[in-house]
Amino acid sequence: MTSNIYDFSTLTGQIHTWLSGLMSPGWVTFTEFVLVGLVFLLAYALLGLFLVYAERKVCAFMQNRVGPNRVGKWGIIQTIADLIKLLLKELIPIRKSDPFLFNLAPFIVIICSFLAMAAIPYAKGLQAIDFNIGVFYVMAVSSLSVVGILLAGWSSNSKYSLIGAMRSGAQIVSYELSVGLSLLSIIVFAGTMQLSGIVESQANGWWIFKGHIPAVISFIIFLIASTAEINRGPFDLAEAESELTAGFHTEYSGIKFAFFFLAEYMNMFIVSAIAATVFLGGWMPLHIGNWEGFNQIMDYIPSIIWFIGKTFFVIWVIMWFKWTFPRLRIDQLLTLEWKYLLPISLFNIILIAFIVLMGWHF
Amino acid sequence: MSEEIIKDVIIGENEEYIVNMGPQHPSTHGVLRLEVCLKGETVKYLIPHIGYIHRGIEKMTEALTYPQIIHLTDRMDYLSAHINNEAVCLVVEDAMQIEVPERVKYIRTILDELNRLASHQLWWSAFGMDLGALTTFFYGLRDREYILDIFEESFGSRLLHSFVMPGGLMHDIHPNFQKRTKEFITYFRKKLPEYDQLLTGNVIFHNRSKGIGYMSKETAIGYGVTGPSGRGSGFSCDIRKIAPYGAYDKVQFNEILETEGDTFARYQVRMREMWESLNIIEQLIDNIPEGDYTAKMKPIIKLPAGEYFRRVETARGELAVYVVSDGNKSPYRMRFRTPNFSNLFVMNEIAKGCKIADLIAISGSLDLVIPDIDR
Amino acid sequence: MNSIAKYLSELFKGVSTLWAGMRITGKYFFSPGAIVTQQYPENRKTLKMTDRFKGEVIMPHDENNQHACTGCGICEMNCPNGSIEIITDRVPNAEGKMERVIDKHIYHLSMCTFCGLCVKTCPSDALAFGQKFEHAVFDRNKLTKVLNQPGSKLRKEAK
Amino acid sequence: MLNREELKKIIGSLEPDATFSEGTQLLEVTVPAEKLYALAEKLKSDSRTTFDYMINHTAIDFVKNFTVVYHLESTEMRHLVVLKSILEDKDNAKVDSLSALYPAVEYFEREVFDLFGIQYNNHPYLKRFFMEDGAGFPLRKDYRDEVNIIER
Amino acid sequence: MESESLILFFIIAVILVGGAIIFATLIAPSSLNPVKSEPYECGIESEGPAWIQFNVGYYLFAIIYLVFDVETVFLFPWGVVMKAIGIRAFIEIIIFFFILGLGLLYAWKKRALKWV
Known about the structure:
The complex is a heteropentamer.
Chain A: H1 8-22, H2 25-62, H3 78-87, H4 99-118, H5 134-143, H6 145-155, H7 159-190, H8 195-200, H9 207-210, H10 212-229, H11 241-244, H12 254-278, H13 292-300, H14 303-322, H15 330-358
Helix pairs in contact in A: 1-2, 2-3, 2-12, 3-12, 4-5, 4-6, 4-12, 5-7, 6-7, 7-10, 7-15, 10-12, 10-15, 12-14
Chain C: H1 2-29, E1 56-58, E2 66-67, H2 74-78, E3 84-92, E4 98-108, H3 117-121, E5 128-130, E6 144-146, E7 153-154
Parallel strand pairs in C: 2-7
Antiparallel strand pairs in C: 1-5, 3-4, 4-6
Chain E: H1 6-27, H2 56-85, H3 87-109
Helix pairs in contact in E: 2-3
């Protein structure tokens, strides 16, 4: 089995013992809370900034460009410069808007992505909250962000925003189904909803390999549906640039806009992390059958690297989608879901159930 | 629930939603304002409002000499600047009955086609972007750069090159012109299939463009929709065939016609025209005759009194120049019948009942250049 | 059954066309050699404009600080935008006759549309196009230029 | 494609009041303003002429009168005709709108109204196009604008 | 950590957003004018209210979604125990899906899935 050299639980355990030696149990819990909070806050902000940078570079390379290259080496701190600029921008209140909902909306989208971040197993022993219904929880929380988008569009008293928000609503409620069903297919394989449990069940092979073709199909469906759920191209109808200028966040300026932007990228990270965890083995290294030497070498790569590598691969694929395809129209978007993805995923689950029943998976 | 019942259930059936698209909108390619009445997401009707960059070119011409007018026409359809210039030249040459040298005709025709290619490339880029395929923009512009470099080498300017003069050209083409044009043809022949793979074949693109914005042949003729937009409806309106000018009567080429009349047909016409333009250039580029680059002209050009009318095919359709001269060195009245002016107003007719997203696709497929409408 | 077959074939056809598009962008992603962007301010040294490039109108002076402009005013007349103004002077020449020379050949770059009519129609080829294209300034008045250098004279053709 | 003489004959039979100009580049037909619509309708529907495509419509201010000009083409037979009508009363210039025959002409007429101030009867939406209300009619020869037009 | 610690994440998120907005209001310039606070409509003053009743097409999908999503929620516990129960669970799910599929087919045939 996998080696334990990079087990983060030993590290966290050591910190816990060290803290316990210093103060009373109540304070220990408090300090740990603060520490975890700080770590996540930092990770969240840095990841968001990095993802924006990565997106700009990826699309630049796909379009025969260089991308940002002025601020810092290879433009690496470009996004930080952008963040400072956004912080310094005026926050414009919109006439006749609903100020309470208008200001609430960025909170909701950020809270949703933050809550989802909590349940993802980043590495062996590195997971903030290990729910026994982890998959379910992440799905539920991440789909809540539509409320934020709807509020943003509705409250800004702009016609473009409202159209964008309504589109986003119709889109997310539809694609939520396919996301759920495609994740369900792996739950049937793994027999658990706990994210760490799903990762453990892939110790001897990732589900996308073990699960035969149905797993591949549900992986593709998950990719498509989750791309739609996070409002990214080709499903970015909510902010369809050429039609609605900026869709639901047309009226937001400065840092409030930045939060919608950040939330979009963090949602992309979250769905990619879920895809990596559920289909691609999470932090489990790549093992091939009985190649002992190969498996040994793979084990020496730290689990967090595995996780990040897989996640970024999925992120890259999602970016690849965005920079290749034209945008769908709202009715085609719904047709795709209800007439293609949903029936296929229903059929796929029966297939998987049959495979599991016959014990054909490894 | 049958379809009728669902219709009854529709709340807000009478709710009309007036949305202004433009003048500051990413998809109108300039300062065009479309007042769109929506029901849900369906367009009920739309009213185009123009005039945001009306510069009164027709009035200005009344105070300028003919060579000076030529460089004004650049600013109408700036994407087919050379063809616009040529239109005025042809009128002047017609009126003064000047026979321009063969070499000039050949070069003008090559430049026409290069300009058409550059224009279609930019249209392809922008059309892809209208539909949300953002990468097309960069590929199209990347390839357009080749043509612009050729232009820059010969004329010294990239977009608005007042290269033609009544009776000929400003100066001879650059010695590298033929070589670089041939290089471009081989290069672009390789890139065009990529365009097809990226956008033309794409299933999302098909769904977004097929059957959208249907324009019948009668509508096209009635509204005077010419150029690739009209030919997408089967309206045979290619001036290069009807009234050949330049060296068009010396080359073999087909008038591209599609009969479907939808956005995809208009798209296909332009894509096929790019191939056809490459063919035309290829036929001419090696056969440019030697000779003078301009005919003998008097220093001051005065048209004999009378009325002159000449049509050329720009990248967007039929540009007609109508000159009323009273024998002076500037025209008494000059009228430009620009293609986009007619092409725009068919939009209300063909966009009724489609979605907002389709409206963008339709306006993209008509390939509007706003300064050409406003003049 | 037929409709199911159609459904499936449509599905596969759709996916394959999507894949064709992704191949193109993927190919360019992995070929950084295809990058066409010019690094403009950095490549100023190597950036070479073509010799016909219409950057601005200049009046070439030779090593003796002489130009060819006779001050005939044809360029001023031909300019569609009125961006050329010529101020002439009358000075006696060697033989004692009054002769027209330019005092100032004023060129408003801000109004110029680079149509090339002045250069084309100049009977003595006194004007030319320069290659400089970085004209941005903060003060519009700086765009009004005097083309003849101070102290310059009309070049006398060798007879 | 009919040649000039044939067209002349047909148009002469359709509209006896029509006069033809000599020595012009294209065939020019001048009709009184009130007969314009009837002639255009006949030209469009007559199977010998089938002028179904309106290329261009504009007006010219010949100081003493306005002349409205229509360039018509037949997409089947590819012959061209120039239809003209002279409006003597410059202050109250009126002509019938052809927009019922050619949808495109509606917008050309709006432009002419905008720039010349010629009124069109039965026009569906005669509003100014480029200019604001009260800006005058710039393409008239007597139009003066001290600010924007520099006399040369 | 316990699941109660979710409240921690909630608080962090609120602090992040709230703190940044407060910080931005402190340092960002403010030069409001009535035109600036107009809702965006491409530079034209907007006509009529933006808050209107919206097309039923959206609600119809919401209803269908509700039906299916509730069913999907039932499927998750089944997925967990599927391996353990075996053939009985499989047959049950086929019956379940048959009904679900019928529902979808019904909506499909009745064109409820058609965007109006």
